[in-house]
Amino acid sequence: MSEALHAVPPEPDMVQLLTPEGVRVEHPDYPLDITDDEIKSLYRDLVLVRRIDTEAIALQRQGELGLWASCLGQEGAQVGAGRALRPHDMSFPTYREHGVAWCQDVDPLVLLGMFRGTNLGGWDPADNNFNLYTIVIGAQTLHAAGYAMGVVRDGAVGTGDPNRDTAVLAFFGDGASSQGDVNESFVWAAADNLPVVYFCQNNQWAISAPVTTQSRVPIYHRASGFGFPGIRIDGNDVLASLAVTRKALDNARNGQGPTLIEAFTYRMNPHTTSDDPTRYRLAAETETWKLKDPIERVRAYLTREVGVDAEFFASIERESEAMAEHVRSGCRALPDPEPLSVFEHVHAEMTDELREQRDAFATYLQSFEEVGA
Amino acid sequence: MSEALHAVPPEPDMVQLLTPEGVRVEHPDYPLDITDDEIKSLYRDLVLVRRIDTEAIALQRQGELGLWASCLGQEGAQVGAGRALRPHDMSFPTYREHGVAWCQDVDPLVLLGMFRGTNLGGWDPADNNFNLYTIVIGAQTLHAAGYAMGVVRDGAVGTGDPNRDTAVLAFFGDGASSQGDVNESFVWAAADNLPVVYFCQNNQWAISAPVTTQSRVPIYHRASGFGFPGIRIDGNDVLASLAVTRKALDNARNGQGPTLIEAFTYRMNPHTTSDDPTRYRLAAETETWKLKDPIERVRAYLTREVGVDAEFFASIERESEAMAEHVRSGCRALPDPEPLSVFEHVHAEMTDELREQRDAFATYLQSFEEVGA
Amino acid sequence: MSPVMMAKALNEGLRKALEDDPKVIIMGEDVGKLGGVFRITDGLQKDFGEARVFDTPLAESGIIGTAVGLAIRGYRPVCEIQFDGFVYPGFDQIVSQVAKIHNRSNGKIKMPITIRIPYGGGIGAVEHHSESPEAYFAHTAGLKVVSCSNPSDAYWMIQQSIRSDDPVIFFEPKRRYWVKGEVADRPAPLHQARVVRPGRDATVVAYGPMVATALEAAGAAEDDGHDIEVIDLRSISPMDTATVVASVERTGRLVVVHEASVSHGVGAELAARVQEKAFYSLEAPVLRVGGFDTPYPASRLEEEWLPTVDRILDAVDRSLEY
Amino acid sequence: MSPVMMAKALNEGLRKALEDDPKVIIMGEDVGKLGGVFRITDGLQKDFGEARVFDTPLAESGIIGTAVGLAIRGYRPVCEIQFDGFVYPGFDQIVSQVAKIHNRSNGKIKMPITIRIPYGGGIGAVEHHSESPEAYFAHTAGLKVVSCSNPSDAYWMIQQSIRSDDPVIFFEPKRRYWVKGEVADRPAPLHQARVVRPGRDATVVAYGPMVATALEAAGAAEDDGHDIEVIDLRSISPMDTATVVASVERTGRLVVVHEASVSHGVGAELAARVQEKAFYSLEAPVLRVGGFDTPYPASRLEEEWLPTVDRILDAVDRSLEY
Ligand SMILES: Cc1ncc(C[n+]2csc(CCOP(=O)(O)OP(=O)(O)O)c2C)c(N)n1
Ligand SMILES: Cc1ncc(C[n+]2csc(CCOP(=O)(O)OP(=O)(O)O)c2C)c(N)n1
Ligand SMILES: [Mg+2]
Ligand SMILES: [Mg+2]
């Protein structure tokens, strides 16, 4: 760890429940009673999410995907946050929350469409309480605040009824913290005491910009300036992420308003498959973070403290093999959209002039088929 | 004061050097050694600024101005901040900083053009280191940050040379604190440790929206979240405004970075001459704030503590009469722009197509003259 | 209804929308107690409560962005932008989110958001308070853009826009807020243009604040023996080209009028469509009358800058001379 | 210079601008160490230092707004917007400040800001990375808008734009970044169109990424015996209408091509101008080929959505049939 401590200044104020070495530690404010089976199930999540991610990168290399934004290294933060969600809660991801999608039972294949280019997302946020991926940095945080305003108006906050009270979980990155939209979202959440939890994955980089380009203080400090609590967690510790997000969501549901969680983590892979990090960061830095891997520490804990046997890990391996196959074959099977579908879903009610454009284009396309015929 | 204290919760953390009753008090962090003559000159500033403002309102009533945004009640904050500026410093006002304009030696008539509708501002910010009024809420705070970036690149920070080191003073209102631009400006100033001082006049209202619509915590708290100091002052205390702004500007010039000053004050008049505050606030509130008038307290101090004689006040009265006359006659004398001037200064280099439009319009206008002739 | 001002008609239309659908909410700066700087939402907060008619913090991106979230939650937000020149901080949320989310979701999510924008000049205002940004939105696929020119349309079109499952940018000609007019018992289709004055010699198309000016011009032209047809476009996007083309096929001449700068304005699109669809009918090129290609000027110059009866007549004469 | 890619030509042009004027600075997201996601600023921070070539925080309004302040201080900022679809958060600062401050100050302040925007589609990207927002800026008085279509123009036009005392929105056709070409010894005037292929039968006008496609179409048309003139507009605002009109007076036919959605696009303005100025020369209506009036589609559909050689030929044929 000593190297690691050089790379990342020790954060006394960082909540950690499971050390990189896999040692379970307690935190006064965040007691977490969790069974070993639950931890095993978190391990399964982590491994499967990573496998989905790895497979997607391979598919991009093979030309099956145009792009992929890897979440490698951030699985702990995402699975912890995702598993803290209750059925009624709504989540607003960026484009990197594949781990949260997994926890919300979104079939990985649903995520692939926009990266393959067969659609722009295309899923219904209501299906899994998982909003569409949002690429415009920060924009989704205002959607989350607005959704939370709706929750309040629906009387779904602070009723004490677990089947009614609802919280909203909004994701964004360290770079996004500079966007006006994110700060305006903080203004709304604070002024209206909205049931929204902001989950910032500070993965140290915004493409090539280190977090210091955005802020000279820890990002979780930002919240206090707007009048709500902010807290930093070890973003590679799935237990810390689960415990802190769970508590923050509880507070939101109970009408105690917003919280900002800064998950201190690291983007192990390039920004996307199009990026070349060798131009702006040292391999040594990445190496250091390897020592803090979110999965290894859970595996170490399960092996050492719980005495989980090899068969368990083997079964997870088999499951992840199956998942990889599902992703591979499923991706290749994603159908290309029909040419004329570009005119669909532009409006709920298609306009005559767009219909005219569509019909003209249809005629144009046919002219070739005739030639072909 | 007791009523006042009901209306405005006492702010232990609010810097005050001159009480509403005109009693001089000390503040450990903000010693201000100031001569009685200097205070007399501040009094003169306050009275003249108020007179300019009052006269402008009258001119609007008479139809000489289309609109006026009154600074009544905010003269203390503005004159204190304005007098803290050094010759090299640059200021970025909103549309209400008439008191700062005065301190920067801007002839009141220069301000009237945009309210009369004879121009859109039209002055050169370099003339008095006073930027054009900016109507789009918050926009000027980014201009201030950018200007400060230029100051840094010019090596005009932290050299120790008083004739070289430069600070930037950016004004905005309580409502503006919600705008993305203002928060992005904070991001830039903090990340680059820019020599900019943010001066927020919290006059309790953004048109009809009380400050609570924008924030549930004092606005000066915002700064800490971005990593720089924030402080609240009694915005009706010209001495507190002078002392605190002076220190913040010094820090900026010395390379110690940004500060946010929240001047806790009150908009005594309607938002603008088009506004009707009876629809959203009680006269009682305004009455309470009358007791905190920024001018009265200085007058009380000068009379009671300094023993300034009636002749001094009379001379200021005469001067303000003269100023009123200057504003009245000067305003009426402001020339209407030439019709064809709409085409001027659209670009530094006029385009052929705009020249074509201008010539066509000139011909069109002439066709009437010919008819007329 | 007896004759009412457009401002009142809008207020009544909003009231009706709030009554008809509990999911309708009104949000914006100063729309609550104050009733908006133009009093269009006057009394609505009092009658429908602060949960449904409320003041937001001062940030347009926040207003639009939270409206998007409310729409995802099933609400039907009506956002007021205080003045035309202040919609731009919300432009990103409008163009990249409001306009695109229905499409992004393959039709799964609806965006029934109405964005009300008091627009146009002629009221002697300061900078940013007199602009006509409609072309920006008309060029943005996924949005619908309309503008009312009279109290009756104001009353009906605002309700139709709110009821629409598509986002509608609703442009209100602020300088006509105080003009009175009868309110019809039935609405016309939202995206249909209207011939407000039939004529044989030339067609003048306008919308919003310029319709009244165009009608005035047509009246004046009559004295010179010219019979001008005037069409109120009403819907800017989609644009009822058919109605205009049908008219031009009769008159052979077309003048388009709007306050926005001429270049790349709505008149350009209409001209481009008509010269294509009525190519053989046009006896003169489509002429455009609009604001000049300059920023909206200081108010003492706005009468020169804005299209006037005389400038419209001048264009009509030039058209007739072909 | 031997043939270079457009990306390299832009890089060299920026380098030259930095050398020629110490007030020139380059700012944006990832323009420093990374050299921009397209490497257009590659090596410039290394050679000119972090004070002159620097990464900004991640906020476009902040990038443009601070550039305005730098300009007031006497600098000549060159802002990079990472992708077309991300300019909108900075739209307010561009439209209400960059475009208007010179005018607001009665000419006292200059705004020599260049905003570089890699734009257009055809690279198989995800949403927001393939848009063509040029019409928004062309409709904004106070801005100048240009687009290069080849390495030589890229090299010279970027320098001319930076040297211009007016704000210039500089559109770079990202899909042509890697196409090589010779760089001329001398620049053409920045706001002048260029006839890139003379022809007698019809005129095709394009700019940026569509110029190559238009030339290809002209080549194909030759096989059918049609002699097509192709004009590279180069400057979108101001627009060199005279060059287009002169061409149409010879050919009698005009097709305008751009990637942006057809409705209210740049083609509308050109059509409106040409049908007015060349009314008696037009033997066919001005026809437009562009993106459809839909959001830019998923990349697997972009080949259908974008104007192609065939769609241009189809329009040319329709024009010739009149
Ligand atoms: C408004 C906007 N500007 C620029 C971009 C281009 N871009 C995509 S991701 C990214 C960096 C985001 O960094 P961060 O917020 O830290 O999230 P991360 O990618 O690290 O998860 C940028 C600049 C964008 N998508 N949206
Ligand atoms: C972007 C933008 N939105 C809306 C407005 C309309 N407007 C003018 S002043 C104002 C209130 C400003 O309040 P505050 O920031 O507290 O400044 P104050 O007027 O109280 O000095 C509003 C909403 C504007 N000028 N700019
Ligand atoms: Mg990041
Ligand atoms: Mg205020």
Distance between the termini of chain C: 45 Å
CA radius of gyration of chain C is 19 Å
Uncertain runs of chain A: 1-10
The oligomeric state is heterotetramer
Count of individual beta strands of chain A: 8
Structure class of chain A: alpha/beta
> How would you characterize the largest beta sheet of chain C?
7 strands, mixed
Shape of chain C: globular
Let me know the average pLDDT of chain A: 95
User: How many H/I helical runs of chain A?
Assistant: 14
Q: Kindly report how far apart the N and C termini of chain A lie.
A: 69 Å
Strand percentage of chain C = 15-25%
Structure description:
The complex is a heterotetramer, with 2 copies of chain A (about 375 residues) and 2 copies of chain C (about 325 residues). Chain A is α/β, with parallel strands linked by helices and about 375 residues long. Chain A contains 14 helices and 8 strands. Helices cover about 45% and strands about 10% of the residues of chain A. A 6-stranded parallel sheet of chain A has the order 1-7-8-4-3-2, with helices on both faces. A two-stranded antiparallel ribbon of chain A has the order 5-6. In chain A, helix 2 crosses helix 3. The longest helix of chain A has 26 residues. The N terminus of chain A is likely disordered. In chain C, about 35% of the residues lie in helices and about 20% in strands. In chain C, helix 3 packs parallel to helix 4, helix 8 packs across helix 12 and helix 9 packs across helix 10. The longest helix of chain C is centred in the first third of the chain and has 15 residues. Chains in contact: A-B, A-C, A-D, B-C, B-D, C-D. At the B-D interface, helix 7, helix 8 and helix 14 of B face helix 3, helix 4 and helix 5 of D.
